[in-house]
UniProtKB/TrEMBL annotation:
InterPro entries: G6PDH_assembly_OpcA, OpcA_G6PD_C, OpcA_G6PD_N. Residues 304-355 are annotated as: Disordered. Signal peptide: none annotated. Residues 170-297 form the Glucose-6-phosphate dehydrogenase assembly protein OpcA C-terminal domain. Pfam families: OpcA_G6PD_assem, OpcA_G6PD_C. Residues 346-355 have a biased composition (Gly residues). Residues 55-157 form the Glucose-6-phosphate dehydrogenase assembly protein OpcA N-terminal domain. This is OpcA, an allosteric effector of glucose-6-phosphate dehydrogenase, actinobacterial. It comes from the Bacteria.
């Protein structure tokens, strides 16, 4: 063990990691685990420390076994290196596991023996997630799979749509979790004005998965047309619901304080700050049952995107048929048939050429 309270295991395996976790728990004077779940974090090496810090904060509310898995290069022989974190600042049990070589194709073989028995398993991808989290080898171990389209490094504009298209029960995205205060505030405002909504307008940054989900969710629940506008941010800056009594609006230009406007009532300020990752993660870990509203929202967003694609294709001009080159008139220089015909007339022979 190092002075910092980290047990480093070189060239180890799942049994060695499990034994080291048990030894660390005994050394800490905690023979009973007292943990409620296993949280598996699949993360690039450069983001591992930040992700573990966020998970450690969330684990203060939800004591968990934290397993950060870094899947490295698949070349060469299998190698497993692990760091067991103990001592000050550690909550529950933490292990940073780095895989390389052939074992990267089967990471579940390392993680499966480390899962707490008879406890929920949650897998979290802090940055880029697989196209199908439920079909991923590690995702298949979990009852809850958490992605974050807003933090995707590649294909950022399409990350949310990819997750929506492959939705399975137990999937969720932190872009949806960010909307909890917005959804609560809008629901409370609509309770004050019991009237049908005839239009929805949302202003947000150009790439804002949360704005896309909020628009789809409102359109699905309110059955009203949606308009999406671009703003400078941060995040969502304005949501307006049009009714015959006037507009219900929530405007948040600075990411911290919003103004709520309801017909027949004075405008009032509302705290609506942008939350950090540990707070979002802790909220998601509070409920491990399927989210039916999120399921309906992602289906609606997928359908809306497909309809927009069909409309765009329908608006494209029809492809013009290729013009065939006009045939050359007989008798012009360079026309083979004309030359043959002319030669035949001059010699009085057959114009069909040799047999």
């Amino acid at each position: 063990m190092t002075a910092s309270g980290t047990i480093v295991l070189e060239e180890t395996d799942a049994a060695g990691i499990a034994s080291a976790l048990l030894d660390a728990r005994r050394d800490a004077g905690s023979p009973a685990m007292g943990m409620v779940m296993t949280l598996v974090i699949v993360v690039p090496d450069e983001d591992a420390e930040e992700a573990l810090a966020a998970a450690r904060e969330a684990a203060r509310e939800h004591p968990s076994r934290l397993l950060a898995v870094v899947i490295g290069s698949g070349r060469g022989a299998s190698a497993i290196r692990a760091e067991i974190r103990t001592g000050a600042g550690a909550v529950g049990e933490m292990a940073l596991i780095r895989l390389s070589g052939e074992v990267t194709r089967h990471p579940e073989s390392v993680v499966l023996p480390l899962l707490l028995p008879d406890s929920p398993v949650v897998v979290w991808w802090p940055t880029d997630a697989p196209d199908d989290p439920a079909g991923d080898p590690l995702g298949a171990l979990a009852s809850r799979r958490i992605t974050d389209a807003a933090q995707a490094r590649s294909r950022r504009t399409q990350a949310l749509l990819v997750q929506c298209a492959s939705y399975a029960e137990g999937n969720t995205d932190l872009a949806w979790t960010r909307l909890t205060p917005w959804r609560a505030l809008l629901a409370a405002a609509m309770d004050q004005v019991d009237v049908r909504v005839s239009g929805i307008s949302i202003s947000a940054e150009r790439v804002s998965p949360s704005a896309d989900l909020l628009g789809a969710g409102l359109a699905d629940r309110l059955r009203a047309p949606l308009e999406r506008h671009r703003s400078q941010g941060p995040g969502i800056t304005d949501v307006t619901l049009t009714t015959r009594r006037g507009d219900i609006s929530v405007t948040r230009p600075d990411g911290r304080l919003a103004t709520l406007s309801v017909p027949g009532a004075p405008d009032r300020p509302v705290a609506l700050r942008r939350r950090d990752i540990p707070e979002l993660l802790a909220e998601e870990l509070r409920r491990l049952d399927p989210d039916d509203i999120y399921a309906a929202t992602v289906k609606r967003l997928t359908r809306m995107n497909a309809e927009e694609g069909s409309a765009a294709d329908a608006g494209k001009p029809a492809k013009k048929p290729d013009k065939k080159p006009a045939s050359k008139p007989a008798g012009k220089p360079g026309d083979t048939a004309a030359r043959r015909r002319s030669a035949g007339e001059q010699s009085g022979g057959n114009t069909e050429g040799p047999s």
